[in-house]
Design goal:
homodimer; mainly alpha; Na+/H+ antiporter like fold; 15 helices; globular
């Protein structure tokens, strides 16, 4: 069959299965990402091995799907950048900032320790830690909303700490990619850092001056979908430049592009368009492609303890790190515990970090499969743990489906 | 450089150059497709040979871009299907239907004759004729609007005839693909036609029953971008099934999917989303990819007469065919001439037919390059000829940029 036809059939299966599984997942009170990841695992080599069905004979099909998944990741990071609410973070204040910062350091240390004790060298161990650092609070925020406690100190602290977490992880990933690539001498490390700083200054300062004006100009011109074309083109350029020129991760560039456009009057139009682009096909393709690249069977019996320990490390490191930060920031012990538990679910950013690490050879199949399992389990566990820490509201509303907050 | 980075850089260049060239084109009173095609020719092997710059070392980059272009074509055909206004066609009545039908037959005969006299066999000659059959009236409609005569018999006839033209060309292309693939015996031809009929009946009748209900259901469910995901998935499925099961062109499937969703209450939401998806990046990628696949230099000195004759045949066959049909339908000679001239510009559907023919081996590089030139020249000429046939309105408004009607 013609390669294009194979791509069409594969995209049809992926989009329909992902969206159906995501919906079923929300019907069961779980976030849609859980269903989308699980269906990816089922379609992938773990169970059905879809891309090796006789109907899919094109050797480049997997590559093409992975390219589309990469584009989905960039748009996801752009949207994440747009949604970063620096004001909310500042308002949440010291406990949020401390919880965010220590909540990133603790998983890197503890996850790194796990890697180190499992025989990985320093760079690989540190990267394993980094994959555990990225939180995903949408499911926790949804749970707190159901419990009618999102507008408390814990809820606001959670949202603020999540912003700190996002920004820190993206920055640390970039530093890591730069240093890991050229860490042969002190001079090369300095050069790597200098390139990063130059890129960041140019991208944020120059981009922050030029892009809003360019956007306003394009909006006035009679160009069909001009604003969205500009936003996409800048996302592609920033992602390319971040890695090719700045020596950082491509997602950092997309994130910065989102940060800049999120502060222009075009925000609403761009967010709407990017949302369609992302959630109608590219993000489902990304989540399923994670499963397509994961062979959970490769874990084998010997790998299961590693994955299980990673789950424990992931939860404990966030509870301890974020909890400690919140406590130092003035929260009570109970509030600090709740915030730490709320921060312990992982999601797409952790998967993105793992994907970057996988394609750079910084983590192997076993670690990648473990990260996928860790994301699945923490996503399942966090709402349960969080609900256990709160008394049920008397006669409260029925839980609302999680899809109301996008992954 | 990493293949994904190369793709990002290529997409950035393509989107920015296409949109800028399209805008410049509208500033010069031309439709944006003219600029987008020209910049594609410049970026392609004809001038800059972009995909062979040292920075683009990935041998699959061209393939990936061509896949994205294919997706763009399908979405374009879906939108075309959505916009088919059967009521307007019926209202325009007999002259429109006759102009549409004879306006398709004449280019096939005359274009086929050109191919035959140039030494091509019957199948190849007929396909050359078919590439000349697809009209694109958006630039003519825009011109008539500027002249304030769109709401006349000629204007309404033009829009009606264009619908007939669209539907007929899509159907004929499908018949052609089916018959050309298995025309070894009468029995196989009958089997091909039977498959087509079965596919069309199932796709239109069963799809027409199921899809609107499915759409209404999905809209009520808490699925992020569920309606758009459904529309895209159905487009992929229909396109795949049209070719893989029905033995027709994939674009026919996308066109039918658009026809069905265009008659549901979801039309506006889907049209908005598809428009963003199409014009923000995939359609510019398609137009540029045409240029990337065209080597106008391959025409050589010997090929130029063929291309020039094709331009003349393209214009004359529409003027004669559509004019005759309109005359038979009751138009005056003057009205029939104006309608025929208005129908003589070609656009994306002609290019799509040529792309399908190229990948099926039904036309070669020389014919493909000639079709691109024919589209460029007829797009340039038609508004000039049309204006010459109308007296200027005294104190009329300034011409408005063509981008107000999408390509």
């Amino acid at each position: 069959m013609d390669p294009v036809l194979q791509l069409l059939l594969a995209l049809f299966i992926i989009v329909v299965m992902a969206k159906s599984a995501g919906y079923l997942s929300t019907r069961l009170g779980q976030p849609s990402v859980l269903g989308e990841l699980l269906i990816g695992l089922i379609l992938g080599p773990t169970v059905l091995n879809m891309l090796h069905w006789p109907v899919f004979g094109d050797p480049h099909l997997e590559e093409t799907i992975s390219y589309l998944a990469h584009l989905g990741v960039l748009i996801l990071m752009f949207v994440a950048g747009m949604e970063v609410d620096l004001e909310a973070m500042l308002k949440a204040g010291r406990p949020a900032v401390l919880a965010g910062v220590i909540g990133v350091i603790a998983p890197i240390l503890l996850g790194g320790l796990q890697g180190w004790l499992s025989g990985f060298d320093l760079a690989h161990s540190a990267f394993i830690g980094l994959t555990l650092a990225a939180t995903s609070v949408s499911i926790s925020a949804q749970t707190l909303m159901e419990l009618q406690v999102l507008r408390t100190r814990v809820g606001m602290g959670l949202l603020g700490a999540a912003v700190v977490d996002d920004v820190l992880v993206v920055l640390l990933l970039s530093v890591f990619m730069g240093v890991a690539a050229g860490s042969s001498s002190l001079l090369s490390v300095l050069w790597v850092l200098a390139r990063m700083v130059i890129f960041l200054v140019l991208a944020i300062w120059l981009g922050g001056k030029i892009l809003p004006r360019l956007g306003a100009l394009v909006e006035r011109l009679p160009i069909s979908e001009g604003v969205m074309a500009l936003a996409l083109a800048v996302t592609f350029l920033y992602a390319w430049a971040a890695e090719a020129l700045g020596g950082m991760a491509a997602i950092t560039g997309a994130f910065i592009a989102g940060l800049i456009f999120g502060r222009t009057p075009l925000r609403e139009e761009i967010e709407h368009g990017m949302h369609t682009l992302a959630y109608a096909w590219l993000v489902p393709v990304f989540f399923v492609s994670i499963g397509l690249e994961t062979n959970a069977r490769a874990l084998g019996v010997s790998g299961i303890p590693f994955a299980l320990i990673m789950v424990v490390v992931a939860v404990l490191s966030k509870v301890i790190g974020c909890g400690l930060g919140a406590r130092l920031g003035g929260f009570t012990n109970g509030e600090a515990l709740r915030l730490g538990v709320g921060m312990s679910s992982r999601g797409e950013v952790g998967l993105i970090v793992a994907t970057v690490g996988m394609s750079s050879g910084l983590i192997d199949d076993l670690v990648f499969a473990s990260v996928v399992i860790m994301v699945l389990v923490t996503t399942l566990l966090t709402p349960i743990m969080l609900r256990a820490l709160y008394p049920r509201p008397a006669g409260g509303p029925q839980p609302r489906p999680a899809a109301e907050i996008d992954q």
